[in-house]
Structures are given as C-alpha cells and as structure tokens.
Design a protein that fits this description.
Layout: E1 2-6, E2 9-11, E3 17-24, E4 31-37, E5 44-49, E6 56-58, E7 66-71, E8 76-81, E9 90-97, E10 112-113, E11 117-121
C-alpha cells in the first residue's frame, strides 16, 4: 500500500489550499486521516474520515475551516483547507488504518503513511 500526499505550497493567511492523498495498492475503504507536524512540535491528528460510515472528525482548531472527503472512484482523500492561519504551517501527512481514533482527527492505529507535503502560511 502506498500513499502519496500532494497539493502543499505557500498560501497567505485567510487563503485556501486543497491537499490530495492518492492511495495505491488498496482502496480508501479503510479510515483515512490527515496529520501534521510543525517544526519542534509533535505530530498531531487533523481530521479523520471513517471507512465504515463516512463520518468525519476534526481537531478543534480546524473545525469549520477544514473539510475531509474521499473519492472512491479516484481512490483519493482530500483535505480542503480554508481560512488558513500561521498555526496551520506544518508538514501534512496522510495515513490509513482500520478506524478513526478516540481523539478527533486521529486514527486508532496507523498502518500506512504517506511521505508528507509542506504547507506554509505566510504573508
């Protein structure tokens, strides 16, 4: 199973960006999650979408701004990021596992990880 994250880049505060995770060797039928890691900080779960019922979960700081979705035909998972701010600057990783975790935005356990894509919010 391979996960390829793309779509990162530089964006101004208040702007938007869409990240894409392309899955190969499997399907997006399992839970999919986006994590991020800023310099000097621990990796944190951002959003998770259940593989069973499509329910979505977000960490508090991105609720109402980020939207996770998946396309079963294209085998991709998207993270639409709106109204970004400097706290969103990080390297973003997609991951997959059997289910979303009890902490919003995380997986119960991540089986596979993508390589990450950098998002920089700066004026």
């Amino acid at each position: 199973v391979q996960l390829q994250a793309s779509g990162g880049g530089s964006v101004q505060p208040g702007g938007s960006l869409t990240l894409t995770c392309t899955v190969s060797g499997s399907t997006v039928s399992e839970a999919m999650s986006w994590y991020r890691q800023a310099p000097g900080k621990e990796r944190e779960g951002v959003s998770c979408i259940s593989g069973i019922n499509g329910l979505t979960y977000y960490r508090d700081s991105v609720k109402g701004r980020f939207t996770i979705s998946k396309d079963n035909v294209k085998n991709t998972v998207l993270l639409q990021m709106n109204s970004v701010n400097s706290d969103d600057t990080a390297k973003y990783y997609c991951a997959t596992g059997p289910s979303c975790g009890s902490i919003p935005g995380t997986l119960y356990v991540a089986h596979y990880w993508g390589q990450g894509t950098q998002v920089t919010v700066s004026s």
